[in-house]
Amino acid sequence: MGNQTTIDRQAFEPAYAQLVNILKEQIARGIYLPGDRLPSESELCKHYHVSPMTVRRSINALLDQGIVSTTQGSGTYVKAPDLSGVTFSLEEFHNIFKDKERTKVKILEVLIIKTDATTANRLAIDLGERTILIRRVLIRDGDPIIYHKEQLIYDPVRPIVEAELEVTSLHGLFVGTGETKFKRGDIAIEAAVLTKEEADALNTMQMQPAFRLEHIFYDFEDKPVSWGRFICRGDRLRFTTTVGVSHRT
Amino acid sequence: MGNQTTIDRQAFEPAYAQLVNILKEQIARGIYLPGDRLPSESELCKHYHVSPMTVRRSINALLDQGIVSTTQGSGTYVKAPDLSGVTFSLEEFHNIFKDKERTKVKILEVLIIKTDATTANRLAIDLGERTILIRRVLIRDGDPIIYHKEQLIYDPVRPIVEAELEVTSLHGLFVGTGETKFKRGDIAIEAAVLTKEEADALNTMQMQPAFRLEHIFYDFEDKPVSWGRFICRGDRLRFTTTVGVSHRT
DNA sequence: TATATAATATTATATATATAACTTTGTCAA
DNA sequence: TTGACAAAGTTATATATATAATATTATATA
Predict the structure, then answer these.
(1) What is the pLDDT of residues B31-63, one digit of tens each?
(2) What angle do helix axes B15-28 and B41-48 make, rounded to 10 degrees?
(3) Are B99 and B59 found together in one domain?
(4) What is the pTM of this model?
(5) CB of A112 within 8 Å of any CB in chain B?
(6) B238 to A190: CB separation less than 8 angstroms, yes or no
(7) Cβ of B81 and A182 within 8 Å?
(8) Same domain membership, residue B47 and residue B98
């Protein structure tokens, strides 16, 4: 069991990172309980023989991780683990896209249509204007996993379509190739049950649980360029995270 | 439109934060495009008349926000916005618990039972050992919103039960009162459809979409102390976030 | 006792500097 | 042209120091 109490200057790990781990471990062991004040920065300096800025950096890391809170003039206090600050990432979602060996993208349909009310609202355009509709399925090991339906602004001047279609893999969206044409995106996750259209595309039955990941992307002028939804079978995806002080790597 | 280009030393906002905003805005405006190299740290020092450490701090902030990436010896580069690093917070979930005015907790059932296989596995105990089962519903404005089913280790020596039951509001779990008895938790989110039991508790129909938030909490010896699930109506909860460079506050 | 004031401790911000590690570029020789 | 090497540029880490802002504690005063 790791039980570091001093900072090893010969170690590969930098001093500030070592101090972070030392403090985290002490908190994890219950030496400092929620509500307790940590030693002041100057005390930590003396005890571990590091400079104030190094201590500061370590404290900041603990702050970022939501493990402690600081009050100017008072001290640094251990936070009780709570769920309010917990985050979960799309990493696992991203992983599905990552290995290009196992996953393929099948384009079901591409057509130019007149917008319905919902799309007009999302893309901030007039009802009836033309948009490009793309429907695709992401297939892993022959199994359809994710259904994607997207509508893009139809703009002959700036042919985003070609760029989008070139990327038949959707890969660019998730790894940041530098070819992405959008500056910013709003994303929402909802729980849903599969509609018939979605179930057909995913080759399963309707009324199955699913994640619905809705996205709107904006260009550099903050105008919407595309809107769409990823539909993901609930039995194939699960988001995990931890709260509190987890073990050191 | 904010268009800050110099650092105002009289401003309330500290220099490093101002520099973060300046750089973010330039990236948002497309002055630096994905893949571009930012000016080197020493150049930024000269241009904005701040010390290297201050520039460093700003760059680190951009790193944390996933806006740039750095390569030692080479430079700092603007990242293309990608979904891989996107995170969702439980803030909105947390908000439901926060206002004690509107929300009440109704305890449906508390009993001591012998564990089934699933619970024994989650709590790392033997099959048939006793656990405490608690079923509650969180009600907002008279409407049942969240159904919670939890099983705790039955340990006469350490009566966690009383503590749990005192907190009839579940509030402590989410705000970190310092009274929480656990050190660490694993959390998973799944998409699901309501079972009959869940639908009854939530006073709605089964087969409706729902989020299932499963949690296991551990004590300071890393032994599981409780396991449970929050079931949340999908039409009452939605997680949102943004990707890329969003506008400054 | 209660209140205001001073002193002290603590975090927050900022500067200046130094060394190390790594990358890129340029130079020179084979 | 190619490869080896040196030089310059860039980020990463660390120290030492200073000032400001806030909180806490002690002290003096009424």
Answers:
(1) 999 999 999 999 999 999 999 999 999 999 999
(2) 110
(3) no
(4) 0.90
(5) no
(6) yes
(7) yes
(8) no
